[in-house]
Amino acid sequence: ASTLTFLETSQGKGLTPSSLSVLSAAKQLKNPIVAILLGPDAKESSSTLLEKFECLGLEKVIVVGDKRLEHYLPELVSPLLKDLLSKGDYSHFVMASNYVGKSILPRVAALLDNQPVCDVVAIKDPKTFVRPIYAGNALSVVKCSQDKTLISIRASAFEPVTAGSSKTAKIEELNYERTEEVDIRWEGCKMVDSDMPDLTSAKIVVAGGRALKDKETFDSLLVPLAKKLHGAIGATRAAVDNGFCNNSLQVGQTGKIVAPDLYIAAGISGAVQHLAGMKDSKIVVAINNDPDAPIFKNADLGIEGDVFEILPELTKKLP
Amino acid sequence: MKILVPVKRVVDAALRPIVSQGALSTSGLKFSSNPFDEIALEEALTLQRTLGGPAKAEVHCISLGPDACTDVLRNCLARGAQHATHVKVPEGNTLEPLAVAKILHGFVKDRGFDLVLLGKQAIDDDAACTGPMLAGLLQWPQATAASRVQWSPETSRLSITSETDSGEQTVSAPLPLVVTADLRLNKPKYVGLAKLMKVKRVPIEKVDPETTMSQRLEQVSVGEPPAKKPVTMVSSVDELVSKIRDLV
């Protein structure tokens, strides 16, 4: 038996940080690991993986370089994964619980008549997993006794594999044969260009809420602090809805789930839906002028006061 | 065109279930429609208006679960849906997304729907599986977590924009297809008592599930997330800086 892991590349940037967490989660399943990489960047990323990252147990990387798979459209990717999983001796399949994972994994599972375990935050044993339910207000321990165990993992809950090399693994190229025609057309995307670190994998996140008033204030108060700490910027749904920043920065039940070493919540009251996205952060610092704001119940360090005064002073005084 | 909107009955979004002794209890709590499904219904009704009203496009809601699901469906009728079907599943029987997708699959095939619009996830199990599973079983295209949906009469295609991990992407597909709704797609309108009274006697169709299946996953236990230590309040930025330094 072996574990098939789905790795992603982001255009021009190589392997995504969440792919490195997928590999470390797969290691916990204690089977030999096979990775699959799709699209035009797949070949190059497979070499990067073998040369730069240490992943014990990685035996093979399957590369399907077909240009049509570039955007991971689930209609095209799912039949391919279904074929691989039903023919090979795979006991497990792991991918990240992100946008791509959420669109592909359930579709593949349905084609295999399988119920996947989504959003895994801990692996107890190769059949037993922990996943949050009710926006993280409860943790469910789930046991899977199907012939194949399909899971998606929350990248923030698994340390990425470290630098090193996995040169004993082989690379195998595979042709993509499209068997069934589903009419779906990729029309385009708007990527957020940013020189800030990736939100989901950043060690430090500086996040702002509605209290930051407008886009100019949001940028002028949060960006210098984030830059000084080499951290990423995050936001609440209210901040995104009010146009302070792009929606890809939303942290919460329906946005990004983050668990950095340090999370600075500035002018964030702490709605349940927001807490669901950041409550696993190691240290939470809350800055708010309302001493009764729920965020303080979920913080390690708190300071009551005006974000407009505290943030600039903090930026100046932090080393 | 026939639009199907599956709606799940869940613990109200403002409430939390009680976790004790390794199990979860929802007894005594208020239940409502899954908020994402309400957004899906609102979008179905908007699309219906664009297409020329109920004569051109009908909106049919379906809910799987105990008898109390009729309340959820009544609410859908009050919002403007033309038909409602209740698939009776006894209280205490947990339907996994795969079972839900299979039942919906049968219903969609039998009744000939062109579009299934549903929430991207339910706020109880947070699984986000049913939409893509249904699309897979039907071999239809899918567009998940839609934040914008647009019908083009020239091409007879639906164009869907979704928020992804690094921004947004747009795909287009002809009918039939499955679309799941995200938060920013629209803001569902408030349903007043008058509208609810109006649909009080509109019949809700009752059917038995076509397939019964055992659960594939066993819930071993449910626990509370580890409790957070009480916050340490500081009174100055200098103190904050030194504490952050100690901790990180």
Overview of the structural elements:
The complex is a heterodimer of chains A (319) and B (248). With 319 residues, chain A is of the alpha/beta class. Chain A is built from eight helices and 18 strands. Chain A folds into two domains: 172 residues, HUPs (Rossmann fold, 3-Layer(aba) Sandwich); 114 residues, TPP-binding domain (Rossmann fold), CATH 3.40.50. Chain A has a seven-stranded parallel sheet, with helices on both faces. In chain A, strands 15-14-16-17-18 form a five-stranded parallel sheet. In chain A, strands 8-9-10 form a three-stranded antiparallel sheet, with no helix packed on it. The termini of chain A are far apart. Chain B has one domain: Rossmann fold (3-Layer(aba) Sandwich), CATH 3.40.50.620. In chain B, the strands form three sheets. Chain B has a nine-stranded mixed sheet with strand order 11-10-9-12-8-1-6-7-13, with helices on both faces. In chain B, α3 crosses α4. The relative contact order of chain B is 0.18. The mean pLDDT of chain B is 94. Chains A and B meet through α3, α4, β7, β9 and β10 of A and α3, α4, β9, β10 and β11 of B. β13 of chain A pairs antiparallel with β11 of chain B, so a sheet runs across the interface.
